[in-house]
Amino acid sequence: xxxFDFAPLNRATIxxxxxxxxxxxxxxxxxxxxxxxxxxxxxxxxxxxRISIAVAGFAESDLTVEVKENALxxxxxxxxxxETRSFLHRGIATRAFExxxxxxxxxxxxxxxxxxxxxxxxxxxxxxxxxxxxxxxISSADPKQAAIEAEAQRVN
Length: 156
What we know:
By secondary structure, this protein is an alpha+beta fold.
């Protein structure tokens, strides 16, 4: 696999270091990405998302959901079985796992629920007012009109 050097990008830009880190992380982590457990990511509204993870065989007490440093970390560790069971076929995996999702800026986890063998994690993107688009009034290019408006502002 190729390794890209993002040093020139960091020298020529200001404030875009997160993009370079994200690209580097995505290119380096693709090879060993686990496929267990399966999951879905769905968009439930304009600024709302839901991650659904199949966690058959795990109880709520076996699951951990944490948010740290713009990363959502879901992990599960099955407790010790006290009874010995003899399986003829064991197709439901209950092995320990850790699944990580990188969250974009202003995305917050609003809740998690566990039902019917599925873990649902709800996310909401909260864009601050300062970052929302706003309409800018276009003033007249006429210098006489601009002088009249400036005089009116000074008097009031």
